[in-house]
C-alpha cells in the first residue's frame, strides 16, 4: 500500500512539473540559447527588479531600469543578460548538459495594480539534447563491422554475437534489431556518463540454413531529435550441397552425335566444385578445349535462399571408344572438404552405335600393264552386318557393274576386289567404303597401285627462243617426259628438221675424259654459242623400262641477228635556211627478224620521234649545220650507221633592222643608225638617204662594218653588221636642221647564192622640246554661278607634245583644252597653268579666271578725328562699289548726317543730338548688281559716364570710394566729440550717494529688482547675461 502511495505521489509531482511550466525550450548541446522572461509593464506598472533561478539557486539579478545587471556563480563566463522594457533574456553562449533544468524568472513591481496577474514567477523548462557521437557495430571479438558489410564467411552451426553501441547521446536512445521486417530479441545495457548515455545492444545467434541471405539491421531511434539511424550487415553463411542429379543420354547414342550430359548440384554455399570421370579416369582440362572433342562448361546461379545451384555440362562427340563407358559426376565444396565428407556423385553408362571402321591392304602393288592384281578391305562395326561396299580409285568410285569382265568381288559378302588386265588408268590410290545401319566409313589408309608403260615426251628449250646471235648464248634442249611409268628416261634420241642428230648417252669404251658421254643426262643436249646456222626444228624420243616411246612434236629454234650496213643520201645537197632537206637511209641485209625501223642521230644525239627510213628536216636552221647518222635495228641488234655532214647556206635576212621611226634631239652630238644582215655566203651593206647612196667621201657621215660569227643561242648564222655615224662636227653649227635634216634612211644588203638582198628603211626625225606655248584666251571674267568658255592650249614641239592643266600645284585636267562643265564659285577664281611636254622637256603658260560676284558689306562703329562714325566696308568682284545709307524705319531721316568715303568703303558721321536708338542700313553695289544690305543698331546720345569708354568704370569707382571715405571720417569725428562731452559731465556733476539723485523717476520701475527699499548700486559697465548689451 505504501509503495502505491509513493508511486502516485511521484506521478503527481511529475505531472505538476510538466503541466505547471510556462514554456519548454529544447536545444542541442554547445548551441546558443536565449530564455525570455515577459514583463507586463502595461498592466503591472514599473518594474523594481528581476531575478533568474536555476531550480532553487539564483543565478542572475537585474534592476528594473536595467542599469544594474549581474550574473552570479559559475555562469558568469557563459551566460549574459539582455534586458529590455518588455522582456528580459538569459543568454547561454554554449549550452551544456549540466544546464538542463527548470529556470524561474521572478519579477517584482514597485506598485502592482489590482489587475496585475503576477504570480511572481515565469517557469521555463530547458532540455539539452546531444546527438550520438558514435554508432558502431562490433562482433564478439570487438572487431568493427562496417555498415552494409558482410560478416563471415561463417559455418552452419557456429555462434554469432554482434553488439550495436551508441555513445554520447541524450536522452538515452532506443535500440532495436530487425530481420526481414521483424523485431529480433536482444539484450541491452544503458550507462550514464555525466548526463550522456551509452547504450549497448547485443544480438546472439546460432547460425542455421535459415540465416542464408539474411540481413540484420540495428535501428537507433531518438524521438526527441526525430533521429533514426540504421546500420545493417549481411551474414555470409557457408553450407554443404544437398542434392546432385546427372542427366543426358537415354538408351543409346550414335557415333558422331553431340552428346550433352548435365550435372546439377543445389543447396551449396559457396558454389560446389564439379568433377567429371570416364569410368575411373578423371576428365581434366587437357582433355577439353578448342582442339579437343570434349568441352565442359560450368555455370553457377544464385538462388533466393542465398545458396547456389551449379550446373555443369559436358558436351562431346560420341565415338566407338565411349561404348560401354561409365560417366560419373562428383560435387563438393569447402564445407564438405573441411569436414572430410565424401563428394556427392551420380553415374550414367553409355551405349554408342557406330559405323564400320575400315582398313585396306597391302600398302603397295606394282604390276606391268595387262597384269591382274587383288586388293583387300577389312573392318570393325556395331552392328557388324554390312549393307553397302564401294571401292574408290583416286577418290573416284569404281563402277564395278559397268565392267563385270574386269572386276570380281567388292560385295557385302566378299569385300576384296580383283582387277583383271590392268592398264595405265588403273594407277592410283585405292580406298574402300563400307556402310551399316548406323553409317558409312572410308578406310583410313590406302593402297597405291603402280602400272608400268612407255614414255610420252615433249621438247623444251632453255632459255626460251628466240635468242640474239650477238649474245653468243648457249641453248639447252630438254626432252621432258610428259607421261609414262616410270617417269625416268634412260635413253634419248635427238632430231633436227626430222634428221637424226645423236643418241644419248653415248657409251663408247674408246672415248675418255670430256669426250665420254656415257654418264651424261640423256634428257639434255647443249648447243654452244648458237648462231644463225643453228636455226631449225628440233625433236626427241625417249626410252624407259617399258621401251621406246613416240617422237615428240618439233620445236623451232629461232635466232635473231642485226641488219647489215646502212647507206644515206639527202636532197638538196646544200640546204637553205628556213627551207627543208630530206634524208633517205637504206640497207641490203635486213636481218632476222626483218628490220622495219631506223634510228636517226643529229649531231650525235638521238632523234626520238623518227623511226622511218626517210626523214625531212623542216625548217633548216643553224642547228642543222651538223652531222646526220642513220642505221636500221631489230630485236637482234643495231646495224652499222651511215653518216653525212650537212652544209647549210642562209639568204640575206635582217637580224637587226631599222625601226620605222628614229628620232634625235636637234642638238645631240652622238647620232648613229645600225643594221645587221644574216647571210651565208657573206654579203655587203650600203646606206641611202632619200634613195641616194651615201658615199665614203661625204664628210657628214662615216660607216663602220664587220662580219659577225654565228650565234647558236639565237639560231642566227654569220651576219654583216654596219653602223652609219653622223659626224656632227661637219654640220652647220653642229646641230641638225629641224626641216631639211628630217629624211628617210635605208640599209641595203647585196645578193648571195642563197637569195636576193634585203632593204630596211627608217624615217629620221629631228626632235625638239615644246616652245611658243599659247592659249586661246589668257584672261577670262565670268559671273559667279555661270560656266566659263573653254580655253585651248597649243605649243610647237617634235614629237608632238602632250598637255595637262594644273591649279595650285595639282593636276586638274589632262589634255590641251580646259573645259569646265559645272558652274563656278568665287573660290574657283585664280591662275590655271597649261603645261606642254614631250620626252625632251616641257613649257607652260598661265590663264587667269576672274569670278565676278555681288558685294557683301559689314558695318563697324568707331571714332575718327574725334567724331563718332559708322564705317561700311564692301567685299565683291569687281571690288569697286557704290554705297547707300538709310534708316530701317521710314519715319526716320538721314538729312542731318554727313557721309564720305571712296569706292571701297563709306563713312557716316553720327549726330550727337539724337537720343533715341536707331538701326542704320548700308547697301553696296557693283557692276554685277546690288548686294544684300547690312545693318547696325545705335543707341541715342548719353552722358559721358554712360558711354562705353574704357576709363568710365574706373572713374565711377574712384568717386564712390571717395564719398564713402568722407562719410566715415565725419562719423568718427562725431563719435569722438560725443564721448569727450559725456566724460566731462560725469566728473563735474553730483554723485548719487550724496543725496542728489540724477535718475529720473520711474527709471528702475521696469528692472528685475524693482520694489526693493534701496536700489542696488549700478556697475560702471554692467553687462546683461542674455543680450550681451553694454549699458552706460
From TrEMBL:
Keywords: Disulfide bond, Membrane, Signal, Transmembrane, Transmembrane helix
A Pfam match: C2-set_2
Residue ranges constituting the Ig-like domain according to the UniProt record: 16-123, 132-228, 241-349, 356-443, 455-558, 563-647, 652-763, 770-850, 855-939
Transmembrane segments: 954-978
Protein name as catalogued: Putative neural cell adhesion molecule l1
Signal peptide: 1-20
Primary location class: membrane
Membrane topology per record: Single-pass membrane protein
Source organism, top-level taxon: Eukaryota
InterPro entries: CD80_C2-set, Ig-like_dom, Ig-like_dom_sf, Ig-like_fold, Ig_sub, Ig_sub2
GO terms for cellular component: membrane
Compartments in which it is found: Membrane
Keyword Aminoacyl-tRNA synthetase: no
Tagged with keyword Membrane: yes
